[in-house]
Amino acid sequence: MISHPEKKPVATESKESSFNASEIRFIDIILFVGRYIKLLMLVAVAAVVAGVAYSFTLQKKYEAKVSLLPEYGTSRRGSFSLLGAGLNGDGAEKLQPDLYPTIMQSSPFGEYLLKQPVVDKDNKSYKTLMDFMRAQAKPGLLSGLFSSSSKAPAKEVKLKREGILSYSLSEQSNIAGAISLLSAEVDQKSGVIMISAETVDPFVSAIVVEAAQKYLVDYVEDYRSSKASQREGLLADRVKEAKARLRTAEYALQSYRDQNRNIFSNTAKIEEQRLQAEYILSESLYSDLVRRYEQAKVTVKEERPVFKVLEPVKVPLVKSSPKRLRIGLIWGFLGGFFTLLYILLVKEKVIQKIVSGASE
């Protein structure tokens, strides 16, 4: 009797446990979704509810806005298209509107805001915005655990030098906090400037926006008219000097004529002609400087920009944040996303299957 050798079974366990991403079929995706759809929906709904509940722990904030339209100059000034290019009708350089938001991100602007007096909705007055921010600051739940009261504060050394700003760490933090209350943007097509502020108090938001508007208008006016104002001041000094020179020349001429009334020598006539020429030159110079000085005063007014208020500052009546629906949707998306990652990486062990499939 012939004994046949037994056939060894083919090992298929490794093949069954292996995973090939190219072999995924649409029906596999449907089955996967069917197995975990209830879990994903449950976690997403729970995350949405948790997000909405979390939004109730956040402080309500109110946003105030103002819309400005800058206009530059008189009939000989260019349109906003030239303004956007940084030029006016005469080719003079202008402060581009794109830089307006940058002005309200500067440290001097932050200092200016912190010094503004404000009033809250309860009609309580604060000497400065800094005092209001300190009153609204609340220590965190874990701040006491990590703060070390026994540790002495580090000694702060400031540089006292003209043209250099030297702030302490707390001052820099306060300035950054004040600047963060505001936002500004410029519509490139219409040129409208939108300034907005968002704080926990509607009255304070309106006051901060109004202060920012005043700072921006004053800054741009000073920038545009500073060169013309310097020229006006220079011409004013020259007019004074020319007037004094004219008086001196006139006095010298008249004094010489009084002293040499009956003298008919050629030498006397030459001296008189020289003094008269000096007087005529001084008078002409004075008249020309006066004319240019008057033109400079007009130019200062022409160079001063005009800001038209399209939408004035209003006290907000409805809160602008927190947006509970948006927070809930974001939490729901994140909850579903992390649940999907957990299913793929922990329950289905996709990475381990991919690695084992690649090794085979």
TrEMBL record:
Superkingdom assignment: Bacteria
Entry-linked InterPro entries: Bact_polysacc_biosynth/exp, LPS_length_determ_N
Membrane topology: Multi-pass membrane protein
Location of the Polysaccharide chain length determinant N-terminal domain: 23-112
Keyword Membrane: yes
TM region positions: 36-56, 327-345
Localization: Cell membrane
Primary residence: membrane
Record keywords: Cell membrane, Membrane, Transmembrane, Transmembrane helix
Name of the protein: Uncharacterized protein involved in exopolysaccharide biosynthesis
Annotated source species: Dyadobacter fermentans
